[in-house]
Design a protein that fits this description.
It is a multi-pass membrane protein. It comes from Plastoroseomonas hellenica. This is Heme exporter protein C. Keywords: Cell inner membrane, Cell membrane, Cytochrome c-type biogenesis, Membrane, Transmembrane, Transmembrane helix, Transport. By secondary structure, this protein is mostly helical. It has a single domain (about 1-25, about 30-160, about 175-205), classed as Four Helix Bundle (Hemerythrin (Met), subunit A) (Up-down Bundle), CATH 1.20.120. The chain is about 80% helix and about 0% strand. The chain has helices at about 1-20, 35-65, 65-100, 105-125, 130-145, 150-160, 180-235. Helix 2 (about 35-65) packs across helix 5 (about 130-145) and helix 4 runs antiparallel to helix 6. The protein starts with a helix and ends with a helix.
C-alpha cells in the first residue's frame, strides 16, 4: 500500500503539472481543453471500474468467493464518486463548448445511467441484514448493468450526438497531438493508480473489520459457553 500510494501521487502530480502548466491550449477550445485531463480519465475509470465490478460479481455468484463480495462492496462507492466527477467535469466542459450544462445526449444519458447503477449497487449490498443476500442481489444488478458499457462506448457511433467521437482509443493514429496525448495518458495512469489505492485500502479495512467481528463473536460464544458450564456445575 505505501508503494502504491507513493506511485499514485507521484505519477498524478507529474501528469497534472504537465497537463495544466506545460501542455498547449487547443486551437479551437483554447484553455478549456484542460478539463479533458480530468474528465477523460474519469470516464475511462468509471467504465473500467464497472467492468471490474462485473468480474467480482461473477466470482461471487459462481465461486462464492468472500473476498469478491468485499471487493464489490467497497468498489461501488469509489466508482460512484468517479462517475460523478466524470459527469461534473463533462458539464463544466459542455457549457463553453455547447452553450449548456446538460443535454440528453446518448453518451451523457448512458453515463448518467451508469452513475445510477453504481449508486444502486452500493445501496443494495447494504440493504439486507444478511451480508450474503445483499452481495447476491448486488452481483445480479451489476451483471445486468454490464449491457450499458457498450452503449456508452459506441453511443457516439450509433447515434447522432453532440459528444465528440473517440480521439484516443480508435483504429489508426490517435486524434490528439502527442503534446496533449502524453500528458493525458500520464494523468490517466495516475488516476488509475489512485483508484486502485483507494479500493485496496477500503477492501483492507473491510477485511480487518470482518476479522474483528469474527473475534468478537468467537469471544462472546466462549463467554456464553463458560457461563453455561459454570451453571451446569453449580446445578
Amino acid at each position: 500500500m505505501p508503494w502504491l500510494w507513493a506511485a499514485a501521487l507521484l505519477v498524478l502530480g507529474i501528469g497534472l503539472a504537465w497537463a495544466l502548466l506545460f501542455s498547449p491550449p487547443d486551437w479551437q477550445q483554447g484553455e478549456t481543453v484542460r478539463i479533458m485531463y480530468v474528465h477523460v480519465p474519469m470516464a475511462w475509470l468509471a467504465m473500467g471500474g464497472y467492468a471490474g465490478l462485473a468480474i467480482a460479481s461473477v466470482l461471487s455468484l459462481v465461486w462464492r468467493h468472500p473476498l469478491a463480495d468485499l471487493a464489490a462492496r467497497e468498489l461501488s462507492p469509489v466508482g460512484a464518486a468517479i462517475t460523478a466527477l466524470c459527469l461534473a467535469t463533462g458539464s463544466l466542459w459542455g457549457k463553453p463548448m455547447w452553450g449548456t450544462w446538460w443535454v440528453w445526449d446518448a453518451r451523457l444519458t448512458s453515463v448518467l445511467v451508469l452513475f445510477f447503477l453504481w449508486l444502486g449497487h452500493a445501496a443494495l449490498v447494504r440493504a439486507f441484514e444478511e451480508p450474503e443476500r445483499g452481495a447476491r442481489a448486488g452481483a445480479i444488478l451489476a451483471l445486468i448493468g454490464v449491457v450499458n458499457l457498450p452503449i456508452i462506448k459506441f453511443s457516439v457511433d450509433w447515434w447522432n450526438t453532440l459528444h465528440q467521437p473517440a480521439s484516443v482509443a480508435r483504429l489508426g493514429s490517435p486524434g490528439l497531438h502527442v503534446d496533449m496525448l502524453y500528458p493525458l495518458l500520464t494523468c490517466a495512469s495516475g488516476f488509475a493508480l489512485l483508484f486502485a489505492a483507494l479500493v485496496l485500502a477500503r477492501v483492507r479495512s473491510a477485511v480487518m473489520e470482518r476479522r474483528i467481528r469474527g473475534l468478537e463473536l468467537a469471544s462472546a460464544r466462549r463467554h456464553e459457553q463458560g457461563r453455561f458450564s459454570e451453571g451446569a456445575i453449580t446445578s
